[in-house]
Amino acid sequence: MVARIKCSTNIRKPFHYNENKVREGDACLLAAENMLVHVDTHKDKAVLLLERQVALRPDVKVNSVHISLNFSPDEQLSNEQMELIARDYMEGIGFGNQPYLLYRHFDSGHPHCHIVTTNIGLDKSRISLHQIGKLKSEPVRKELENRYGLIKAEQQKTKISTINPLDATKVIYGKVATKQAISKVLNAVIPVYKYCSLAELNAVLGLYNVRAEQGNNGSRIEQNKGLVYRVLDHEGQCIGVPIKASLFTEKPTLPNLERRFLANDVGRSKFKDSLKNKIDITLKFKKCASFKEFQDRLKSQDIRLVPRVNGDGIIFGLTYIDLKSKAVFNGSALGKEYSAKAILERIHLAKIVNPETGFEKNIALGKGYPKELSNENNCIVVYERLHEKSALALMMQYEYAATNVPYEWKKKKKKRKK
Predict the structure, then answer these.
(1) 2-157: CATH architecture
(2) Cα 161 from Cα 374, distance rounded (Å)
């Protein structure tokens, strides 16, 4: 069992978080202890009761406590067992007489519950939260593991560290324990693929619905060169709680990754030319009418092309992943002719609105072309004819034309008078 405690200054925030889960069908209310109202029919009165208790000590700023008790995926706990464990846990850390709401969540691969309470008592006393995790929670957690025969947290770490890298699959939030699923992906990607930047690593991790983040600009995570890993949903948006890199057994922290960047730069160089040749052949001999078709052509050669798209739907970067050699290159690392702008021009696309649906045909020809040539039916055909020559024309054209002017036509230079 693993217990996590978060303290804040707003009791409504954890309450609404859990209530939203209930409305979405991802959680249910198990118990409401020491409440003076019937919570099933008066949930709003329950949070008002907590707020009134908090108001007894306006001088206390940190007055909201949000606890989560997480159990092993191998444990099958009934609602009654989880409620009993939560009650004994609250009693053990000194919150047995406090009003609290107990929710069971179903949005993860492991059984877990959330507790919303306050550290302000009815007698205006304040329960100290200083090092509550180390001094109170940890001893109680270990005691409950022995009492109820729960799988110990230390055993879970050992189990995760022995995962076979070949077991890595695309992570689907809620079906498997988040940390265990991310750990599988990291074991399969970090020591195997040859990447030289965090963006290139994220391109590979994105294939498994995982992303590494440094935090926002100026955040504490960024200032301390920290790194967290998150799960992505089917739209590429982060979902669930971020997990620190230092919590994984393989320690995929930013300093450790930066050391790999230097070694990978040498290791991937021998695969650079072969990847460029595959891209050039695809562009020259296989006509691609859309960006999605270009991706599919490369995919048939075990190359994944991952676009980086801004908020307006414009592609501003490309990353190439060679699944055979495990080499990863940003377009700029291969050369200017393989950057996003150059590739879109080579396949006659001026702008991509959505890499899944294609491009806007009305701007495919760019500027400077007659309006009569830019109709929807022949824009691609005309554009290719304007820029490509037939094989016969290429063979018959002059490769070199002399530009020397005959001697008789040259004017004599006037001699400069001294």
Answers:
(1) 2-Layer Sandwich (3.30)
(2) 59
